[in-house]
Amino acid sequence: MQRDLRLDNVGRRYGLRGPWVLRGVHLTVPPGTLIRIEGHNGTGKSTLLRLLARIDAPSEGRISGAPRTAYVPERFPTALPFTALGYLTHLGAVHGLSRPAATRAALEWLDRFGAAAYARTPMAQLSKGSSQKVAVAQALLAEPELLVLDEAWTGLDSAARAELERAVAERTADGTAVVFVDHDPRRLAGAPDATYTVHDGALNVRTGQGTSPSTGPHATVVVQGPSGASLPAEATRTATATDEPTPGTHRLTVPASHSDVVLRALLAAHPPWHVVSVSQETTAPSDPSAPSDLSAPSAPSEAESRR
């Protein structure tokens, strides 16, 4: 069974007498959590992520727990003797997939990120954006228990950035822990379970771990379910708030970036839930206990009709 990843009094410096980049770091990363790391350039964010990914060892302190980990670095090496498909197939096989299964997974992820046309292009000939898509794909096809993303959105086009946000939502809903750094403060706004800031070598929590996010764009999903049915676990894990304003009618507040995951879980249930409405708020979510008129179901939402 997967255990939490824990950093206890961890410090890191380069060289026996080099300055401390990080010191006294305590951090617990439970399964299924989404954690954002912030801080100015040069404060040690990338060093922290390399420690979490077990690429670097701490100079002091202890790291415990061994989730299966995938890592997307800020700069991905492109001078590799593979095509994009060959590289991903090789990595899939390293992670235990058969070669046919690894090839299928590689093609699926390349297609999701709009890079299928470059599947047989040598890695050294890929553009920065295309090589970054391969970097993201190699991490996701492993179905990791811990996904570490260091500026992974940098260089991606808008469609691929949105696809990566969807993939993060899918993985966290499925129990994967995700730790990420990104320069855009709007990235996955409202979704993280905790936000930490690296400052002067120390790690400081900004939002209490395990608390519901209260800022950023959210979506409100209103559904009606089969008599006596409980909401799918994937939907309740992803929602920041749920309530039942009328018997059989449920209202879920979810980060806008995760709404697709919730809708898919509801519509794929057996029997499926009926989606009454989906609306998006650009401000903090309102009190879910506030009254609203749910007396008459509306027409199926656009999201439902697409499925």
From TrEMBL:
Q: Residue limits of the ABC transporter domain?
A: 5-225
Q: Which SMART domains does this entry report, sorted A to Z?
A: AAA
Residue ranges annotated as compositionally biased, kind Low complexity, are 232-247, 284-307
Q: Which UniProt keywords apply?
A: ATP-binding, Nucleotide-binding, Transport
Q: Which residues cross the membrane?
A: none
How far does the signal peptide extend, from start to end residue? none
Location of the region described as Disordered in the Swiss-Prot/TrEMBL record: 225-251, 278-307
Q: GO molecular function of the protein, one example? A: ATP binding
Which domain of life does the protein's organism represent? Bacteria
Q: Which InterPro entries is this protein grouped with?
A: AAA+_ATPase (IPR003593), ABC_transporter-like_ATP-bd (IPR003439), ABC_Transporter_VariousFunc (IPR051782), P-loop_NTPase (IPR027417)
> What is the official name of this protein in its record?
ATP-binding cassette domain-containing protein
- What organism is recorded for this protein? Streptomyces shaanxiensis
